[in-house]
UniProtKB/TrEMBL annotation:
The keyword Hydrolase applies. CDD domains: nit (cd07572). It comes from the Eukaryota. It comes from Handroanthus impetiginosus. Keywords: Hydrolase. Pfam families: CN_hydrolase. Residues 5-255 form the CN hydrolase domain. InterPro entries: C-N_Hydrolase (IPR003010), C-N_Hydrolase_sf (IPR036526), Nit1/2_C-N_Hydrolase (IPR045254). One of its GO terms (molecular function) is nitrilase activity. This is Carbon-nitrogen hydrolase. Its EC number is 3.5.5.1. SUPFAM superfamilies: Carbon-nitrogen hydrolase.
């Protein structure tokens, strides 16, 4: 990894039109390339947001289908890595899909995938009721991969509320950059989005790249937005001027910052793993 690498986090308002969303993504790729970014991260549901729950089943495809092939070609033609957070991958049967984070390199090759582990089955206070598990299969694998931008830990949206996953990515899988593509609701975003992201960065001493859906997708659905890039000290180093516009946030991943924070506060040495607490409890 170079000592400094420029990355970008996209913010967009996907709709129930695959072609329109691809056009938006293509435009954002051009912006990122012009800005000098080598990696562009897209939010959850970047390629499609249905007007009703479960609509995504109708357009779900395998990773070698025509939708993903277009994004692989886009990465190759633009010589940029793409993080595609939350692709509707066809599941094991016609009534289920997988919410899959796909990482594509600058040659257009799929380098890694992660299927969302924690599914959003929530009655949002003052909002709608969601039951992602009714049409989505949960993943089981923790995924981290080496890249020119450091060792990347892949997650999706609701995973953000479960710190054990991020602890696992940092302390067992060596992650240096955590990727959190999301489509947070307006209510939950206002209450918790920035706080949770900065907490994950601080407690793992990792960069966090959080690409977000923002604005009204339809009369029935609205996302909070606020795409962020956060450094290992919890400082916001990349952010758009508002929460709902379509655009990119740009920042430089600095290897020296990761090393400095971790050496001055060596929590990896001070940390007591789960096995320690189990042993301590057993001895009581």
């Amino acid at each position: 990894m170079a000592t400094s690498v420029r990355v970008a986090a996209a913010q967009m308002t996907s709709v129930n039109d695959l072609s329109a969303n691809f056009s938006t993504c293509s435009r954002l790729v051009k912006e990122a390339v012009t800005a000098g970014a080598k990696l562009l991260c897209f939010p959850e549901n970047f390629s499609y947001v249905g007007s009703k729950s479960g609509n995504s089943l109708a357009i779900a495809e395998p990773l070698d289908g025509p939708i993903m092939k277009k994004y692989c070609s886009l990465a190759k033609e633009s010589s940029i890595w793409l993080s595609l957070g939350g692709f509707q991958e066809k599941g094991s049967d016609d009534s289920h899909l997988r919410n899959t984070h796909v990482l594509i390199d600058d040659a257009g090759n799929i380098r890694s995938t992660y299927s969302k582990m924690h599914l959003f089955d929530v009655d949002v206070p003052g909002g709608a009721v969601y039951k992602e598990s009714s049409f989505t299969e949960a993943g089981n694998d923790v995924v981290a991969i080496d890249s020119p931008f450091g060792r990347l830990g892949l997650t999706v949206c609701y995973d953000l509320r479960f710190p054990d996953l991020y602890q696992e990515l940092r302390f067992r899988h060596g992650a240096e950059v955590l990727m959190v593509p999301a489509a947070f609701t307006k209510v939950t975003g206002e209450a918790h989005w920035e706080t949770l992201l900065r907490a994950r960065a601080i407690e793992t001493q990792c960069y966090v790249i959080a690409a977000a859906q923002g604005g009204k997708h339809s009369e029935e659905r609205e996302s909070y937005g606020d795409s962020l890039i956060i450094d290992p000290w919890g400082k916001i180093v990349g952010r758009l001027s508002d929460r709902t516009s379509t655009g990119i946030a740009v920042a430089d991943i600095e290897l020296s910052v990761i090393q400095s924070v971790r050496s001055k506060m060596p929590i990896s040495q001070h940390r007591k793993p789960v096995e320690f607490w189990r042993s301590a409890s057993a001895s009581l």
